[in-house]
Amino acid sequence: MISARSGHPGGSQRTVYAALACAFAAALGLAGCGGGGRLTKSQYEDKLQSAGSKLTAAVQQLTRATSKDEFQQNVGDVQDALDSAADSLDGVTPPSDVAGANDRLVHGLRGLAQDFGQVKAAADEGIDTATRKAREVTTGAASREARQAIEELRRHGYDVGQLGT
């Protein structure tokens, strides 16, 4: 079980897991979904918003983790949500004005899913190691790429819903 070392800010395990989950949430303002031919702006927004809701649900579950095993399982669920969003977005033809942003978002989501595996593994070494790794992931290249793609979608006037939170 991960436990906060004596004097560690945040105190309880639940608080520490919630803090880690909040760091993840900051990086996870991302996602997507599936489709067929070129989507309209409204259809694409619906896909983004649906994926954002699913990802948010996975992150919220992560905030409830109270043990190392539960934390690692919930990180895995977030990874699955990221992979699912990337697969779904990769399977659509977005409006032409955001095709490049969509490609970058897919790439960023896949990178984030992979990077979160490092956080899960770091939990075995203790809360400080997991916290450091979470900071690396949330400020890393994949996270930046996904955030920049979301910002580009917004600049083009797309409502990304919970993806941008």
Q: Any overview of this molecule?
A:
The protein is mainly α and 165 residues long. It has one domain. Helices cover 68% and strands 0% of the residues. The protein is built from six helices and no strands. Helix 1 packs antiparallel against helix 2 and helix 1 runs parallel beside helix 5. 43% of the residues are buried.
| Helicity range | 55-70%
* pLDDT < 50 stretches: 1-11, 29-35
Shape descriptor: elongated
Tell me how many strands there are.
0
Instruction: Please identify the structural class as seen in this structure.
Output: mainly alpha
Number of domains: 1
Kindly estimate the percentage of residues that lie in beta strands according to DSSP.
under 5%
Largest sheet, in brief, is: none
